[in-house]
Amino acid sequence: MLSMIAxxxxxxxxxxxxxxCVSSRNVIHGTYWLLLCAVGTAGMTWFLGAxxxxxxxxxIYAGAVGILTMFTVMxxxxxxxxxxxxxxxxxxxxxxxxGFFGLVAYGxxxxxxxxxxxxxxxxxxxxxxxxxxxxxxxxxxxxEVAALVLLVxxxxxxxxxxxxxxxxxxxxxxxx
Amino acid sequence: xxxWLQAILWVLMIIVVMLVNGSLIIYMLRKVLGAAHLRIGPQxxxxxxxxxxxxxxxxxxxxxxxxxxxSDKWLYILAPIIIFLPILVAFGFLPFGYHMVxxxxxxxxxxxxxxxxxxxxxxxxxxxxxxxxxxxxxxxxSIGAAITYEIPLLLxxxxxxxxxxxxxxxxxxxxxxxxxxxxxxxxxSAIIFLICAQMETNQAPFDMTEAxxxxxxxxxxxxxxxxxxxxxxxxxxxxxxxxGLAVTLFLGGWTLPGIxxxxxxxxxxxxxxxxxxxxxxxxxxxRGNFSRFRVDKLAQMGWKRMIPFTLVWIIVFAIGFRGFxxxxxxxxxxxxxxxxxx
Lengths: 176, 342
Description:
Chain A has helices spanning 2-23, 27-47, 51-75, 91-110, 112-115, 126-133, 140-161, 164-175. Chain A is an all-alpha fold. Chain B is globular and about 70 Å long.
């Protein structure tokens, strides 16, 4: 019963926040609604017993993505007057979103295990979880290799775009 | 119902600890900074000025609660709460003693860092909503600083997790009671953690978000009365939380070397609090002895020095630790006899 109440409250929070996020004219308000949406989703995954996922959601989506969005605002819109955007209702996009929602909902209903989701998985010890993450035959391993390749690409990109002459000039300026 | 009562009691206790801690730190800060600047600090009210806090609180409570014109009303009201709540939650994961922790979850360290990471969003909200150019600059700086220190902060705790084999803060403490304080094998991590904690709590030399003298009071310029009190309290609580986390991760938490953790009993929280205040003292000495960094220098230090260094250090540490594990069966008994058993 309690988990049902929690689910309803969180689901309403997420829905309202998601709608406000796309409909709010103020970019900063939109960002904070997005954060609320992420926190609500983290709460839902928490109640489903996926604690690690919930906290990753909080750390990555509420913490890191939130800060990155603010960072974007910081380097683009700096005053209150320019930090607003036009909100136009686009019927085609709405139709697309509703269609996608219908598809996902249909998939959920078709899958019997998901529709009758009552049991919560037992939490496993963290060391076991870590070993599973680095299991060479496991499913997570491919993603980790991909992430590593992306990291290397990122560092290489920074290295390539670094202009050495500029750096020297700047240092000269500071010294002078 | 018992569980509910227990939860409410824990929350009340955390709030009491926060309030007492706030009043202690403010007195300590004035005296320590005073000594660092060769001043006396508060001295008029009570012996050595210990009652100075009371008129300060009365002033905060009775001041007019004003809203700046054109401020973003809801965000302005919500911002101190967004700053305050994550710190309040983060308190719940600090182990004060054997089973003396409000929320003993097996990913406590990660949760604590996740909640601490939400604080800059509140700071940004405060600065943005105030409709004041100094506040806005402070807010923007807080995001710039957050983007710099979050990554090294997260990376700096990884050697501790490798050694303890757990993200549960209680288990990390017990792992140190079994071996040695983690500051000894992971000193570079402890130093990076200390620097990042100083940035996280917006303290000099990294207090660009407030920067009195440049930005009036930065993001909190337009806040007055109890709203300012909330921001203030959250800042001091943040001090305590990060110092407590440093103690838990690197300085053995509530345990003492050579004493059985189960026998600590009622002394555990006392030991923990004393250690935490020692770390807070270190924070304050750093605050009093270093001048403020420039914003771009901070970003350069974070991205060009601390992140590459922590990444390399993790690899070096992991290889070293694995090597130690492999040779330990042959060397371990010898070391133990050297240290006199244990």
